[in-house]
């Protein structure tokens, strides 16, 4: 990761949907999300177009429903493990919406949002878990306030509103991979 908060090994697709973190807001949370566009379909460039406000609303009926949304994440991990970064980790991406973690409101202010290409009920790929674990370890090394107990799902910070990454996400496996990455110095 460079000093500007961009991953050297990721493909960069810069989103306009971000802003500065509030003064004094320290990065201390990592939020795992999922996304597929159209819903339940993998591949293609719709997610990138969506995060960059370039999604053609006429390309799929669902796109009409989300046409006016302006959202982003810091990064997306594709099914094959490819990492695409949209927003510098130093900036505030628009991924969490109204949210709260341990009594702290507005998780976008102090959190990093990582999207996995997937759905709540389709198992994630091994390559995604490996890429997410390596990325998580790099984030934890750069921002020590992001600890294992501050890795969470969108469903946990916006209960009743969000369900991702869903029951298909294997948290124990993910935590084990993060620990393995830490032990092997994979950053």
General description of the model:
The protein has 187 residues and is of the alpha/beta class. It contains five helices and ten strands, in the order E-E-E-H-H-E-E-E-E-E-E-H-E-H-H. The strands form three sheets. A six-stranded mixed β-sheet has the order 1-5-4-9-3-10. It is globular and about 45 Å long. The termini are close together. The relative contact order is 0.21. The mean pLDDT is 96.
What is the succession of H and E elements?
A: EEEHHEEEEEEHEHH
Overall strand count? 10
Distance between the termini: 9 Å
Strand order of the largest sheet: 1-5-4-9-3-10
Spans of at least 5 consecutive residues whose pLDDT stays below 50 are none
- Apparent shape: globular
Kindly name the structural category: alpha/beta
Helix content: 10-25%
Q: What percent of residues are in strands?
A: 15-25%
**Major beta sheet summary:** 6 strands, mixed
Q: Tell me the Rg in angstroms.
A: 15 Å
Could you tell me the mean pLDDT? 96
Q: What's the tally of helices?
A: 5
Short description:
Helix content is 25%, strand content 18%. With 187 residues, the chain is an alpha/beta fold.
């Amino acid at each position: 990761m460079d000093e500007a908060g961009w991953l050297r090994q990721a493909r960069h697709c810069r989103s306009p949907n971000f802003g500065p973190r509030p003064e004094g807001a320290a990065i201390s949370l990592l939020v795992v999300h999922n996304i597929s566009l159209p819903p339940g379909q993998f591949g293609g460039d719709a997610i990138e177009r969506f995060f960059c406000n370039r999604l053609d609303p006429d390309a799929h009926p669902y796109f009409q429903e989300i046409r006016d949304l302006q959202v982003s994440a810091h990064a997306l991990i594709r099914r094959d493990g490819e990492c695409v970064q949209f927003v510098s980790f130093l900036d505030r991406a628009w991924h969490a919406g109204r949210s709260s973690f341990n009594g702290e409101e507005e998780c976008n202010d102090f959190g990093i949002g990582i999207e996995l290409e997937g759905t709540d009920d389709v198992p994630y790929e091994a390559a995604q878990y490996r890429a997410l674990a390596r990325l998580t370890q790099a984030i934890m090394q750069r921002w020590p306030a992001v600890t294992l107990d501050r890795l969470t799902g969108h469903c946990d910070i916006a209960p009743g509103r969000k369900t991702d990454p869903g029951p298909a996400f294997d948290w124990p496996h993910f935590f084990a991979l993060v620990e393995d990455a830490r032990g092997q110095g994979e950053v």
